[in-house]
């Protein structure tokens, strides 16, 4: 029994482009197609050993927008996020089927180097995880490993500024990143992720470990980041998704993408009853 | 004895528990006694050695080569000697060089093997087999390593009974412990650190070098130093590779094929000589050896504490 089993979807922009057949077979409700997609997921399955965590995910992620992934615990949001920058490669038992295109290139092709991919697609984790190094070295880390550290001083400052944390740490760049508060650590991690200037930033519940003030700072930041980056953010917080995202994907239990559309549409008038129930808090 | 099962009233004064409490106390007492036996024996030994050595352990003892005549070691005679005082100098230097070389070898071999096993080796039966056997090797008696060193380095590789042969043999001896403890240190580095590094586009080697190793190195160093302090007191392996019991000149670090002596050998040599006063000389040697050993352990503890506070 699959929620998106044989839905026939007709949306304005569901014409043209890659593997239409697959899309109609497995497409979620809503408008899974966008014209300016950077990332296109086609029938993406992910398995952990024998357990299937994601079932035929089809969605396009627009450029320079914030796309929110929501859904109940265990529905595969983190799994999907990790399959975008191939962090699932680090999990021995994880296996990915199907295609995921980044700028039209299937990142699961044999000739794709996951390290090179991750240099284009940065990541911020649920729990702030700065290195036990100085604030400066934390932000410089990506620049250094990617060999982009010609002008490291300036790049670090710019990144800290964009991550809205420069004012707070400007005169303690040599002190340890671990001495910061949780909210500051998370913004430091965002600075670390954007310093080498990726195109896409993946965020897995970046504010879930933070208090409301720190959370609202991160939210403001996410909206600003969307001016220059494509942001994909997992969140458990419905209001947060409604506030900061342009597009919302609703995953439901079992690893199915049930509906994907403009955030306003999802929150005001979702097509699926189950999505409506989930959003209004009737389950999940 | 109170029958505590068939009373249905509440045993308010705990009389039924009294016997159990007594038993508990007796057990604690026995454990305390057992601890004291160990500590008292150790203190007695130390006091005995230090009193034996008292008055014989001088700066000259540390800086002069050994002598055949027991009078030469006695500070009271220093002024009247025409040959110069007797001391432990060549063996002291031999031991230090031995440890330096062993430290260098184990650092590279031990850390290299640990990184391979922990970070790169595929999770196969062969890997498990190798890891189990490394752990088993840690229990092999040191004289076996001595025999191995004799066959492998002294004979097959023709190093002769040299400083190099001694250091390589001691390396083999402590390598299993170093590998196992280094593996544990690497395993203790949280996965979130590794993920953070991969997430910023680092390669595996960059992740290991910039994130994993800096985190693990204090633990690795502690393991190496503690192993080295075991190696410095070992007599059997260097005896097997043919270290001299007594040397007049210290070996040179730039000439690793020099013959050498080490403190345990020298102490053994003094202890078996007939003149009664040589017992004082041997005791002085033991104090020097113990001091170095305790210093090394202190350094290891300092590194560990500094590292723990930083977290
Ligand atoms: N490393 C792993 N090994 C095995 N199974 C995993 C692993 N990671 C996730 N899973 C399984 O895959 C499914 C989806 O997990 P995932 O972490 O993607 O969910 P999620 O939507 O992010 O949940 P949450 O909101 O709780 O973070 C779950 O059933 C989970 O048990
Ligand atoms: Mg998750």
Automatic annotation (TrEMBL), chain A:
Xref: NCBIfam families: 3a0107s01c2 (TIGR00972)
UniProt entry keywords in alphabetical sequence: ATP-binding, Cell membrane, Membrane, Nucleotide-binding, Transport
Superkingdom of this protein's organism: Archaea
Record field: compositional bias (Polar residues): 1-17
Protein name as it appears in the record: Phosphate ABC transporter ATP-binding protein
Matching PANTHER family: ABC TRANSPORTER I FAMILY MEMBER 17 (PTHR43423:SF1)
Gene: pstB
Location of the region described as Disordered in the Swiss-Prot/TrEMBL record: 1-34
Coiled coil: none
Species annotation: Natronorubrum halalkaliphilum
TrEMBL record, chain B:
Keywords tagged on the record: Cell membrane, Membrane, Transmembrane, Transmembrane helix, Transport
Gene Ontology cellular-component annotations: plasma membrane
Spans traversing the lipid bilayer: 26-47, 88-117, 137-157, 163-182, 281-303
Pfam families listed in its UniProt record: BPD_transp_1
Compartment(s) where it occurs, according to its Swiss-Prot or TrEMBL record: Cell membrane
GO biological process: phosphate ion transmembrane transport
SUPFAM superfamilies: MetI-like (SSF161098)
Superkingdom of the source species: Archaea
Predominant subcellular localization, coarse grouping: membrane
Membrane topology label: Multi-pass membrane protein
InterPro entries: MetI-like (IPR000515), MetI-like_sf (IPR035906), Phosphate_PstA (IPR005672)
CDD domains: TM_PBP2
Keyword Cell division: no
Domain ABC transmembrane type-1: 92-299
Alphabetized GO MF terms: phosphate transmembrane transporter activity
UniProt KW Metal-binding keyword: no
Family statement drawn from the similarity comment of this UniProt entry: Belongs to the binding-protein-dependent transport system permease family. CysTW subfamily.
The protein's name: Phosphate transport system permease protein PstA
Native source organism of the sequence: Natronorubrum halalkaliphilum
Gene that specifies this protein: pstA
């Amino acid at each position: 029994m699959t929620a998106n089993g044989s839905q026939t979807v007709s949306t304005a922009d569901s014409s043209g482009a890659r593997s239409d057949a697959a899309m109609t077979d497995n497409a979620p409700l809503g408008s899974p197609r966008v014209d300016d997609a950077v990332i296109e997921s086609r029938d993406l399955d992910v398995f952990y050993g024998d357990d299937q965590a994601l079932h035929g995910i089809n969605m396009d992620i627009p450029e320079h927008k914030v796309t929110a992934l929501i859904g109940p615990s265990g529905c595969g949001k983190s799994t999907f996020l990790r399959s975008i920058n191939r962090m699932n490669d680090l999990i021995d038992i994880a296996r990915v089927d199907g295609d995921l295109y980044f700028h039209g290139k299937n990142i699961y092709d044999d000739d794709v180097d996951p390290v090179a991919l991750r240099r284009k697609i940065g990541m911020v984790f649920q729990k702030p995880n700065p290195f036990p190094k100085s604030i400066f070295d934390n932000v410089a880390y990506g620049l250094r490993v990617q060999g982009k550290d010609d002008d490291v001083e300036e790049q670090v400052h710019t990144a800290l500024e964009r991550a809205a944390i420069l004012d707070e740490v400007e005169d303690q760049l040599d002190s340890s990143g671990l001495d910061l508060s949780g909210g500051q650590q998370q913004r430091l991690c965002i600075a670390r992720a954007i310093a080498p200037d990726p195109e896409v930033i993946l965020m897995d519940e970046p504010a879930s470990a933070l208090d409301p003030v720190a959370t609202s700072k991160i939210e403001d930041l996410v909206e600003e980041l969307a001016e220059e980056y494509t942001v994909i953010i997992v969140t458990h917080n419905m209001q947060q998704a409604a506030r900061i995202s342009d597009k919302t994907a609703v995953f439901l239990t079992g690893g199915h993408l049930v509906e994907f559309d403009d955030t306003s549409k999802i929150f005001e008038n979702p097509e699926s009853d189950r999505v409506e129930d989930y959003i209004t808090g009737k389950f999940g | 004895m109170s029958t505590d099962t068939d009373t249905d009233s509440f045993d308010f004064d705990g009389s039924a528990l009294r016997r159990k409490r007594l038993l508990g106390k007796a057990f604690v007492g026995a454990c305390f006694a057992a601890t004291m036996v160990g500590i008292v024996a150790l203190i007695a030994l130390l006091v005995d050695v230090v009193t034996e050595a008292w008055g014989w352990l001088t700066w000259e003892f540390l800086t002069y080569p050994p002598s055949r005549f027991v009078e030469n070691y006695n500070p009271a005679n220093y002024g009247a000697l025409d040959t110069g005082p007797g001391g432990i100098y060549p063996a002291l230097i031999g031991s230090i060089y031995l440890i330096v070389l062993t430290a260098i070898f184990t650092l590279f071999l031990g850390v290299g093997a640990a990184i391979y096993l922990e970070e790169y080796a595929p999770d196969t039966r062969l890997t498990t087999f190798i890891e189990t056997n490394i752990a088993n090797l840690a229990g092999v008696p040191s004289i076996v390593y001595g025999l191995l060193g004799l066959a492998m380095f002294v004979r097959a590789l023709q190093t002769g009974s040299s400083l190099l042969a001694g250091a390589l043999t001691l390396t083999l001896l402590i390598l299993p412990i170093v590998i196992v403890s280094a593996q544990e240190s690497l395993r203790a580095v949280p996965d979130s650190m590794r993920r953070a590094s991969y997430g910023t586009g680092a390669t595996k080697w960059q992740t290991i070098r910039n994130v994993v190793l800096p985190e693990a190195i204090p633990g690795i160093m502690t393991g190496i130093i503690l192993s080295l302090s075991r190696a410095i007191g070992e007599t059997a392996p260097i005896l097997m590779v043919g270290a001299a019991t007594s040397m007049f000149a210290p070996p040179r670090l730039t000439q690793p094929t020099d013959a050498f002596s080490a403190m345990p050998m020298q102490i053994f040599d003094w202890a078996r000589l007939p003149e009664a006063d040589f017992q004082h000389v041997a005791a002085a040697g033991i104090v020097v050896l113990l001091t170095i050993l305790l210093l090394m352990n202190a350094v290891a503890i300092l590194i560990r504490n500094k590292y723990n506070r930083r977290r």
